[in-house]
DNA sequence: TTAGGGTTAG
């Protein structure tokens, strides 16, 4: 990350140099005309806009036999550093015969401002070893460096120095302490410093608010902001930038916006960008878009923020469209933008889009950023292509824990348990140690593939070999593993033997297993806990209701539906998406929005007839409504999965693979029907559901009917 | 004092 910051900084300097070059030309000409006088020396140094000019001034000073005293030295060091040349500054600094705190401060600041935070701290240490006392200018620079490095230990040491040298009541030092502790995640100490200060300025308030924002203490941040207004302190634009991340409600957003207007604060680009994010976070993507459209000179952050807003709002198509427009305007996406765009694609499940974005990344400056490469591996996994995912994984220059875990879980969700285990073995041979997430990946891979003995082996090796203590997620994976395999008694005993209290994930795994094996007794036990622990989750109620329906216990199923209504829990509407000829189409149950609706329904009718001849029997247990059998069958026919598949069949070349994505778990009847469809049409159909992947081919599914 | 996000599972 620091590398990126430096890169951005140098880019900034570059433009800065260009704009100043004309001014510098005049500067150089005037230098040649007259010798340098001591009294004009410092102002000449400060006017230099490029290293080249500064070097000429420096040379003229030597040519003019000017005595380079400490004051001139310090100004030269400072100017070299602020023009981005730390090496020149440091050479000069080291060459100085004498030194004082001023010179050291300038060098420490120069290092910190050029992203060399660790060196800046090192220099602070050396300064003390040399017996030079730090002053009220030293502390802010070096505290800032500690904040950047998240080095709280050294930050605390400097805090002790602050007390020792008697700068505890200095408002500037205090403000920097607040920020340093905040960046290190200790907002509680920041608050102690804030409360202990003898006086505050607008920076103190802003820093404390920003600290709360950074540590996700939004309530506290907002509270302090309004307290600040009560104290009649006028906020500035940085206060606004700091408080904006704390805003979670539309009414608060309106209030902040009103304050900006009333105080006539500069509504510049960064405030506009922030306002945009504020409204998008409150769920008002429309207002965010209005702000975006209103920004006259949009910068990369504006575009990036709006794209991310669409991703957050689960509007991937809009996000990608904006990305396209951004490229047309010849904005080069950077690391942050690309990560957003990858996440947009992830929600779309479009392999074609994944290829395009991958191409973009490959041509960009950031192609070997591990986070981005890993995100793309995950993207290919989620778009159904393990081959591409593995290709990138194998070609990575560097892999970290996350890359390994991603690839392992990729094999897992596609039901390739053996490959996941092989990769896990490879990982163990190297220097990367698996963590708790790797174990979730490998255990769920075993579960998806029904590998019970291997699952047990992994679970037992967690603490023994890797000192990873099982968490509730791992217990949930084991319950899932045992339950899917029908070992219901073992699953129950496993839960009873847990050393920690089972959470919703554990009970949910048991309930899911009960749905497959129709075990009402255990289902009711699990549901009892779930209706307390996870009362808002509609999926839990639907599962139990389905179990009752499957066993013909309609009254109890009705009771569950009534319970949902009473509690105000709404079923999530299912939908399926499919991409055809570069366009993404979305289907809901009984959908008639598609322009090809008539053709789809006609083909559906024909297809259903054909698979019936092959032996398909509609499983009407998956229809919740209390209606006649024949109507039930009709309702199954129009499930979004089936509509999307038929649409895919109608609009793709023979023998191509059909890929669809469902937002919920695929319905049991659709699963059976899809197996038959893959057989009669000879097509491969890949379904991504909320849980895993199903590869349908020749009448069978890769999940082995476990899901 | 300050800007967009932070990759893996469930």
UniProtKB/TrEMBL annotation:
Keyword DNA damage annotated: no
Any one Gene Ontology BP term: RNA modification
Pfam families according to UniProt: DYW_deaminase, E_motif, PPR, PPR_2
InterPro entries for this protein: DYW_dom, E_motif, PPR_At4g14850-like_plant, PPR_rpt, TPR-like_helical_dom_sf
PPR repeats (start-end): 100-134, 201-235, 299-333, 400-434
Domain spans labelled DYW: 615-707
The UniProt record lists the keyword Phosphoprotein: no
Keyword terms, alphabetized: Repeat
PROSITE patterns (alphabetical): PPR
Family: Belongs to the PPR family. PCMP-H subfamily.
The protein's name in its UniProt record: DYW domain-containing protein
Organism in which the protein naturally occurs: Tetracentron sinense
Upper taxonomic lineage: Eukaryota, Viridiplantae, Streptophyta, Embryophyta, Tracheophyta
């Amino acid at each position: 990350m620091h590398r990126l910051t430096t890169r951005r900084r140098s880019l900034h300097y570059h433009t800065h140099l260009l704009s100043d070059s004309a001014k510098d030309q005049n500067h150089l000409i005037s230098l040649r005309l007259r010798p340098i006088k001591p009294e004009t020396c410092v102002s000449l140094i400060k006017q230099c806009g490029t290293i080249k000019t500064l070097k000429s001034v420096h040379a003229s000073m030597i040519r003019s036999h000017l005595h380079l005293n400490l004051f001139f030295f310090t100004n030269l060091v400072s100017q070299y550093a602020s023009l981005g040349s730390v090496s020149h500054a440091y050479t000069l600094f080291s060459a100085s015969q004498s030194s004082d705190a001023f010179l050291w401060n300038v060098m420490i600041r120069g290092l910190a401002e050029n992203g060399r935070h660790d060196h800046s701290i090192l220099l602070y240490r050396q300064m003390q070893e040399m017996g030079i006392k730090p002053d009220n200018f030293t502390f802010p620079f070096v505290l800032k460096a500690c904040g950047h490095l998240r080095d709280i230990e050294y930050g605390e040491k400097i805090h002790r120095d602050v007390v020792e040298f008697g700068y505890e009541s200095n408002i500037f030092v205090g403000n920097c302490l607040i920020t340093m502790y905040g960046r290190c995640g200790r907002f509680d100490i920041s608050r102690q410093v804030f409360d202990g200060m003898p006086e505050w300025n607008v920076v103190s308030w802003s820093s404390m608010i920003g600290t709360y924002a950074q540590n996700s203490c939004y309530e506290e941040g907002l509270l302090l902001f309004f307290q600040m207004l009560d104290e009649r302190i006028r906020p500035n634009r940085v206060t606004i930038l700091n408080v904006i991340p704390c805003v979670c409600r539309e009414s608060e957003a309106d209030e902040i916006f009103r304050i900006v207007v009333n105080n006539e604060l500069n509504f510049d680009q960064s405030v506009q960008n922030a306002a945009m994010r504020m409204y998008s976070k409150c769920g008002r993507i429309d207002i965010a878009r209005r702000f975006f459209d209103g920004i006259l000179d949009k910068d990369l952050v504006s575009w990036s923020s709006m794209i991310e807003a669409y991703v957050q709002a689960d509007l991937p198509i809009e996000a990608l469209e904006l990305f396209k427009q951004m490229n047309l305007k010849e904005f080069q996406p950077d690391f942050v933008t690309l990560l957003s765009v990858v996440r947009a694609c992830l929600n779309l499940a479009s392999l074609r889009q994944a290829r395009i974005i991958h191409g973009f990344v490959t041509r960009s400056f950031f192609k070997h950023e591990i986070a981005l490469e890993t995100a793309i591996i995950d993207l290919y996994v989620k778009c159904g292509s393990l081959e591409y995912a593995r290709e990138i994984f194998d070609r990575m220059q560097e892999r970290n824990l996350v890359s390994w875990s991603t690839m392992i879980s990729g094999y897992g969700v596609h039901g390739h348990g053996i490959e996941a285990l092989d990769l896990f073995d490879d990982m163990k041979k190297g220097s990367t140690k698996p963590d708790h997430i790797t174990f979730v990946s490998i255990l769920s891979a075993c579960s998806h593939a029904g590998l019970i003995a291997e699952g047990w082996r992994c679970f037992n090796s967690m603490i023994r070999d890797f000192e990873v203590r099982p968490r509730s997620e791992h217990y949930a994976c084991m319950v899932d593993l045992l339950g899917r395999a029908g070992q219901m008694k073992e699953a129950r005993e496993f839960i009873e033997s847990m050393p920690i209290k089972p959470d919703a994930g554990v009970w949910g795994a048991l309930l899911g297993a009960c749905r497959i094996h129709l075990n009402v007794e255990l289902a009711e036990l699990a549901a009892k806990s779930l209706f307390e622990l996870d009362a808002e989750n509609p999926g839990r109620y639907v599962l139990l209701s389905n179990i009752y329906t499957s066993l013909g216990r309609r009254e109890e199923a009705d009771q569950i539906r009534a319970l949902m209504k009473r509690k105000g829990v709404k079923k999530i509407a299912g939908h399926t998406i499919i991409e055809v000829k570069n366009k993404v189409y979305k289907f809901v149950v009984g959908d008639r929005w598609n322009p090809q609706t008539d053709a789809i329904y006609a083909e559906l009718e024909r297809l259903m007839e054909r698979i019936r001849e092959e032996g398909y029997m509609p499983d009407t247990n998956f229809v919740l409504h209390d209606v006649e059998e024949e109507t039930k069958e009709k309702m199954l026919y129009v499930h979004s999965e089936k509509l999307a598949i038929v649409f895919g069949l109608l609009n793709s070349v023979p023998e191509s693979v059909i890929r669809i994505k469902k937002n919920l778990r695929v319905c049991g009847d659709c699963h059976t029907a899809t197996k038959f469809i893959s057989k009669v049409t000879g097509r491969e159909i890949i379904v991504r559901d909320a849980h895993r992947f199903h590869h349908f081919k020749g009448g069978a599914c890769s999940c082995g009917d476990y899901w």
